[in-house]
Amino acid sequence: MNSRFLQAMQHNITEIKREQQHLVQSLEAERDETLTESLGELSSVDQHASDLGTELNERQKEQGLIQQAEYTMQQCDEALDKMRQGTNGLCEQCNQLIDRERLMAQPFASRCVPCQTEEEEENENIQQIMT
């Protein structure tokens, strides 16, 4: 891969990571604010069970979004490490070059399209067997 493409990839990965960090900070701040408000409302005797259920559901959704963003940041860090090692853009499974189009769409991709498809099909088969 040429240096111009690698610089563009590094920029894209860094931007994605920055966006995910901002998302996590926003979600955590919102969660903390909601928690503070909820603690104030707990003193109220007329707290309805459905309100508590809705609140729990919202917190679980926020936590899922935070976990997904943290996972994406981890993938970005791994891609940046691979760039420093000179191995970014190589499929972890077959060691072939990952298409540029795939890397532009998902700069932290670790598998080529055929290997990723194979992995997803295997996971889908396992899920079908388990259900």
Strand coverage percent: under 5%
Residue-averaged pLDDT, rounded? 87
- What string gives the helices and strands in order? HHHH
DSSP, total strands = 0
Q: What is the gyration radius calculated from CA atoms?
A: 21 Å
Low-confidence stretches: none
Can you put this structure into words, describing what you see?
This protein has 131 residues and is mostly helical. It has 2 domains: 1-88; 89-131, no CATH class. It contains 4 helices and no strands. The protein has helices at residues 3-41, 49-85, 100-105, 113-130. The longest helix is centred in the N-terminal third of the chain and has 39 residues, at 3-41.
What is the strand and helix layout of this fold?
Elements: H1 3-41, H2 49-85, H3 100-105, H4 113-130
Helix pairs in contact: 1-2
Task: Identify the notable features of this structure and list them briefly.
131 residues; mainly alpha; 2 domains; 4 helices; 76% helix; 0% strand
Summed up, what is this model?
The chain is mostly helical. The protein has helices at residues 3-41, 49-85, 100-105, 113-130.
